[in-house]
């Protein structure tokens, strides 16, 4: 019964903005599952659900993967909106941004978790991206340019 309930919870949170455990319990009951608030609480922990902010300024349950995906999409939009230029110097990529935007763009880069990138350092309008091997620099630049489209 638990696997079916878990599958239903995942289906419900994907389809609707569910804000509270009580709301989730009510929706599960409507689907034929008999649950208590304690059961729903345990299910939320087992499924590793988190609350994320919606576009309307309210919170809803989501999977960690969905939250990370949504966050990554936001970072990509921010990256594409603030990057001015991208050049390279050896195994470093130099990303120029609008004033005050480098930290956000660097967070976008770090959130990609690309194994070729050792890390990044952001100033006010410049980011240094350390690439593990110089041969990968042009590929990373192409990925950044693709993010900007």
Descriptive notes:
The chain is an alpha+beta fold and 149 residues long. The chain folds into 2 domains: 2-68, Orthogonal Bundle (Arc Repressor Mutant, subunit A), CATH 1.10.10; 71-147, Gyrase A, domain 2, CATH 3.30.1360.40. It has helices at 2-15, 21-30, 37-46, 64-82, 102-112, 137-147; strands at residues 49-53, 59-63, 83-89, 92-97, 117-122, 126-131. It has a 4-stranded antiparallel β-sheet. Strands 1-2 form a two-stranded antiparallel ribbon. Helix 4 crosses helix 5 (102-112). The mean pLDDT is 91.
One letter per element, helices H and strands E, the order comes to HHHEEHEEHEEH
**Which runs of at least 5 residues are low in confidence (pLDDT < 50)?**
none
Number of strands: 6
What is the CATH topology classification name of the largest domain?
A: Gyrase A, domain 2
User: How many structural domains in the coordinates?
Assistant: 2
Number of helices: 6
CATH architecture of the largest domain: 2-Layer Sandwich
What general form does the structure show?
A: elongated
Give the termini distance in whole angstroms.
Answer: 46 Å
Strand arrangement across the biggest beta sheet: 3-4-6-5
For the residues shown, what is the average pLDDT? 91
CATH top level of the largest domain?
Answer: Alpha Beta
Q: Report the structural category.
A: alpha+beta
Rg, rounded, reads 21 Å
